[in-house]
Fold this protein.
Amino acid sequence: MFDRPASGENAVLVQLDFGAGPGRLGDYAERLAEFQLLVTSAGAQPLAIVSGKPKSPDSSTYAGKGKVAEIAAAARSQDADVVIFNHELTAGQQRNLEKELGCRVVDRSSLILDIFAQRARSHEGKLQVELAQLQHLATRLVRGWTHLERQKGGIGLRGPGETQLETDRRLLGKRVALLKERLVRLEKQRAVRRRARDRQALLSVSLVGYTNAGKSTLFNALTKAGAYAADQLFATLDTTSRRLYLPDAGQVIISDTVGFIRDLPHSLVAAFHATLEETAGADLLLHVVDSASPDRDQQIAAVDQVLGEIGAAEVPQIIVWNKIDATAADPGMERNEYGRIARVRLSARTGAGLDSLRSALAEVARDHAVSERVDAA
């Protein structure tokens, strides 16, 4: 149990382990820690955690009858406003759980979407988040809203033979189409800016990595941009680009991008396609890794998976081994068997190792300039 907070929504957290085994304990603990950080990043206060190791998800309530009773008892004792599952729930499961528990139920995808909605600052970011939310809602309209299948009736409510569900679907579809149209226009504007940068033959560098790996802190350390950086998940949603001057190499364009996370909702990947396209169009990716995290290998794999989904798997990468101040590792640079720079060890917070990263970027920028001249000849 946790200390009762002074403010914020009271939440009971649910994380079940369907793959219990001798090698799964650490992974389960890391997922739980990440889940708690997601919940607090959304503004809720975790007061209790319900866990368990059922054999398989229950088709009706996901958790099963006995576990639902345990969750209900925890929700009552903690006076919970919401029960949050670190799992994907169907609309039917969510509806059944809310009926059994007597309070709101939120799944992992809805939790991440809520955080994105809170963080979006730019006009495009807000459009992308709304599109993702509506696309997520559409699955609920199709699968779960059976109470809306009834024909509208009553004084002032009778329509031309259209059920409430059909009306909702139609209105939602019109809004989704409008959002997509606006995002296409913004995507075209970004493409124009990207072509202008390409004509200048400047090296384009994108910072990518797991959420809270320290990308924005590194971006600020390199560019003095003052981008928002905080110890919370998805502190950055809107892509920010700055020019960075490197001695002996000239200027490069460096961009800070949204962080990735395992099991990222597909609706978010689809809605943020235009923004993520910046990453796919980069000349180099700086893959920022929290080297102090015991879950770093799984986080690297999760980022690579998303990069594959957005068509950026073939973009050259340099691994940035961040937060070495927490691991006592030495700053420096590592090369692979072909002599190419593979990894840079640094601390974005203290600045140790930043010179190595600047040297690495300068080397790549010089090689890029040579190849551009060759291609132009």
Summary: The longest strand covers residues 44-52.
